[in-house]
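The authors assume throughout that readers already know how a fold can be written as discrete tokens. For illustration, here is how one protein appears when written out as sequence plus structure tokens.
>
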Amino acid sequence: MYKLFSRFSTGKKVIKLLDQPRELEKTRDNLSSESAPPPALQNPQKTLQREFHQAVMAGDLGKVEEIYEDSCTTGQQAALLASLSSGQNTPMHLAAQQGHLTILQFLLSKGASANLKNAEAETAIMLALTPQNAQTKVSQGQKYCFDLLWSQPSLPLVPTQGGKGFNLLFLAAYHNLSDLFEKMLSDPHRSAMVKLMSKQQEKSTGQNLLMFLVNYERLELLKIFLSSQDQGSLTALFEQTDSKGSKVQDYLEMPGRNEGIKELVDDARKRSESPSASI
């Protein structure tokens, strides 16, 4: 430390710095950046986005319209609709998860895409099927938001699996949303998409939807699902294996399995194996 101090104590180094404007300017820049406010406070657009996200989450339609209509140019409006919150969600995601239907309608009317993904690769409709926290259930407002998003023509034909590996059917099954589960399976306009979702396997475990329903013991949802599947689809589901090589039958044989579920699925398996089966 003494040697380091002695090098600067002569004053020669100070004179040298003062003789080099560029070096002095760099020093000033470093000092100003250290004492500057956070980037969000420096950037008016970021501040605007933050206020917009807060208004969306609060369900304040008047404030949302005011910020969108009065505070933005056309270019800023498009950026606002696609902007990410501190939680990495777009306004569409925030409105859907909070169950704010009127906000969602407004965003869609302004050209917001129903297919935007957040940091978890989830679309807004997936958050409409996700409770706001572990202590709550999916609200009626979220279900209304789901209905609106499900009806959008732009909804992709290839079903999305978010970062957790769940598609919409898995999400509805996980949160035991029998009404929305049945709605998807019975919608003739989405039959191709639903058929693909029925075949998909959950990413982390490799479970297909039948295994998933058995594992979580969703008896009512199993009845709905099995009645919607044709013989070929059921046969394929029974033959599929998960990431550990287990089949549906292995899930049925786990200790403590609900007898009603075992009976229901065994009956479906027998009928799927019959040449004259009609599911």
The mean pLDDT is 83. The CA atoms of residues 115 and 155 lie 7 Å apart.
